[in-house]
Amino acid sequence: MESLTLTDVEQKYYSDLFVYCDTDNTKKVASNGKVLDLFRAAQLPSEVVLQITELCGATRLGHFGRSQFYIALKLIAVAQSGLPLRVESLNSVKDLPLPRFVVAKNEQEARHTAMYPDLENQGPYQGVIPRPPGRGQVKKVSAHEVIQPCVPTVEPQPDTTSPVVSPHQSPPTSPHAWRKHKRQASGGNVERPPVVVAGAVWTPFREVQSGPVVVGDGMWSAHSPPPVQESWVSLKDTYPPSSSKMPPMHLSPVQVENSSIRTVASITTANEIQRQSSSGYDDPWKITDEQRQYYINQFKTIQPDLNGFIPGSAAKEFFTKSKLPILELSHIWELSDFDKDGALTLDEFCAAFHLVVARKNGYDLPEKLPESLMPKLIDLDDSAEVPDQAPDVGYSGSPVEVTPNKSPMPSLNQTWPDLNQGNEQWETFSERSSSSQTLTQFDSNIAPADPDTAIVHPVPIRMTPSKIHMQEMELKRTGSDHTHPTSPLMAKPPELSEETKLATSMKILMFFTKGDGYSSSDSYTSDQDPITSVVTRQRSNSGTSPEGLKVAAAPPPPPPRPNASHSRSSSLDMNRNFAAHPTGPQQSGVVACPPAIPPRPLPTQTSGPHSGHRSDEGLAAHSTTSPQQIPEQPNFADFSQFQAFAASDQPSDDGEKHPESLPVRAGPLRTVKIDNQEERAAATVNSAKGSIMAPPPKPVRRRLKSEDELQDEALPPKSNVIATVLATLPSIPRSVGKDKKAIQASIRRNKETNTVLARLNSELQQQLKDLLEERISLEVQLEQLRPFSHL
Amino acid sequence: MHQVRLQIKGSDEARYSYSIDVQISAVLQYWSKPKNYPLFIRSVPVQNELKFHYTVHTSLDVVEEKISAVGKAMADQRELYLGLLYPTEDYKVYGYVTNSKVKFVIVVDSSNTSLRDNEIRSMFRKLHNSFTDVMCNPFYNPGDTIQSKAFDSIVSAMMVQAS
């Protein structure tokens, strides 16, 4: 048996059904009898039922375990929607409606009539509501009471005593299961998943109640013929006129038949419902007139100016009186303070109040603000709106419950009964949903609609720095009159991509709606100041963040650059030896002073020929090895001198290195690589000569090594010097006969090199001393400043 | 995504790190009162969460050092975004402090090289905005742990986006 993935809705529904069938209370096995009854109630042909039982594995097992039961239910749903029965279809079919079961008609009728008296009483209420989210309308659904037993167990409602109808609630709450239906349930509905199970059952009933049925039996009979397996989608399509507002329409033909029976008994109420349902009844969050009036009165007690704000603290006190937990109040605030300014306008206040009321009556808070509760435009005519029966309807049957909750707000209690009796007005609902739509569409009619509204000054809505806010600031600057706001505003919504456009447009709307009569200019200025400061702060934050740190760094003089001249020093030796050396460029400047040692004639001559012919290679090699290598080399003239020298030399490395070193010598080069090469050259030279000139190379080597070390600090001139020194080396082994001379020459050279290096050393020491003094002075300054930093 | 709320005094820290295909993000928000306790912590995924908490706490020291390093004259100009506090072998820690001394810390896995500095900045900015919204709520007492759903959703979205 393949694994089954169920949606939450399905999960709940199936578990309820399982419980229902689990008459022996085994929790594991559904009694076969019940299961088979249920399957029969699914109104599928018996062979299909047999096939289902086979597919789910019950035949194999001999009983219906939970998984088999679930699979069977899913297959029933599959079959009912007309899809072929296959095991794969279990998980592959998306958006499958819940399986529907029909009880015997007799039972239905009986229950129906029992229910209807209540319905009739509540007639006017019904059509209105998509029952307030989560309200105990469960009871109302009679038709499928067979399955109903399961529902109460699921029904989390604190009080299910409300006789009010509208199973409507459930359908709205199960938008996921009934995705096909277009009507979008309002936000308030979404939060009632537990009721979804009921929803599956309720919807057919609901449809009976409202919409199509209403039109009359004729309609129903028209639908009876449709095949049993007709998809509910198509059914729904036939109902658009009457179910303009109806959320899920899952009317199966089966229910049509049933409802046709029921309509006989409830035609009058259905008619009423029909009328009412045509209005935006599916929005449980709409505020009735009385409610709104009440809210407005309450608002006035806090803030006499209806166009003013209620500051957060006052609102907090007010709503704390409702004795809701702070967390919920906090959430309500989040939802209702649309513009996030820490204060409530009249609309925001009404929304918040409404949510409080709803919460107190047991409805869960929505995740986001329902449309109908969003701050409305001025010209919205709320008076004719479908009253949000959510709190009212629920309370009509349970005024007692309402009372204790509202004890801190005694006036509310009076309001509810009033509302309950105000049935007549509910029949006059007009379609208001469109009005709420205008909120999001940022209707340009809004502003012109109220020409008297002079947009005196833009209202700083948002205290927090944000893109929207910045734009608002821009708006402020640009829009000083009526016309402007609309155009920039109209242009804005399209621009706003990140923050919710709705939020933005709402915010901007707030601008203009408050323009007129917004007398508290004080608040404006105060608002503006922090905002501008915030804005500037924001800007400064972002703008200066990269610079801030740098500024901090500016006062102290930048640390001396490390050996710019040896930036390419890849030699560890160089790095090591330069550890203590701060001023590179300065050094070079300083060291550059020491006169460049003129190329020695002897070595140049000796190595001339060799290097001459090697120069090319050397150059090439050199260029590869030391990027900085210069093509300034072309002091081939010098090379010629070295050619003879180089010729006496050894093998390629040396020769190549020499020409390299020669050019180095010729032109001041700053590559460490040269030094490296020289070192290498020296090493190779030494090794090359090793056999012959063992002793001399040693001292030479040593000298070279010391020179190497010096070279690390060396600048071009030094390298030149060393180059010359090295250049002379090859000459040594060449002619034993010239040993003495060569040695002497090399000694001389070394001495000169020594002097040069010594001079360099002294200069560097001098620089070091200077730097140390500088450092000390800086430290002193720092010390002096330190006390101030702690202030 | 697991959401942890500690009653410790401290700051919030956000941490992102990858482990194979999963990215860990811990967002902690610290209060700046003397005790420095976290107002909000979120990490994704949840493994080694304690390690992140520890990291965040230790990073507080660095944050403190940074904000105190600037002299009095610099108090106003002190940048809110503190940048990379310190890198360790596994992760990088970024800090941000508001003018009210509430600290945000984000920990990101070092292997997540795609997160650039300005992205981190924008994350901090979003955090700051959301935090401001939370603050605007009169029912929120400064110092409480943040239980605002809007804040949660923003943080989660941010962490998911960064992963």
Automatic annotation (TrEMBL), chain A:
Residue spans with biased composition (Basic and acidic residues)? 475-484
**Domain EH: start-end pairs:** 10-97, 291-375
BP GO annotations: endocytosis; endosomal transport
- Sorted alphabetically, which Pfam families does this protein's record hold? EH (PF12763)
Q: Where is the composition biased (Polar residues)?
A: 158-168, 536-545, 622-632
Q: List every stretch annotated Disordered.
A: 152-190, 475-499, 536-667
Which cellular component terms (GO) are annotated to the entry? cytosol; plasma membrane
Q: Where is the composition biased (Low complexity)?
A: 636-650
Q: What InterPro entries does the record point to? A: EF-hand-dom_pair, EF_Hand_1_Ca_BS, EF_hand_dom, EH_dom
- What's one GO MF term for it? calcium ion binding
Coiled-coil boundaries: 750-781
The alphabetized UniProt keywords are: Calcium, Coiled coil, Metal-binding, Phosphoprotein, Repeat
Looking at the record, the residues that make up the EF-hand domain are 324-359
Q: Which Gene3D superfamilies match?
A: EF-hand
Instruction: Say yes or no: keyword Amino-acid biosynthesis present.
Output: no
PANTHER family in the cross-refs: EH DOMAIN, RALBP1-ASSOCIATED EPS DOMAIN-CONTAINING PROTEIN 1
Please report the name of this protein according to its UniProt entry. RALBP1 associated Eps domain containing 1
Q: Which organism is it from?
A: Oncorhynchus mykiss
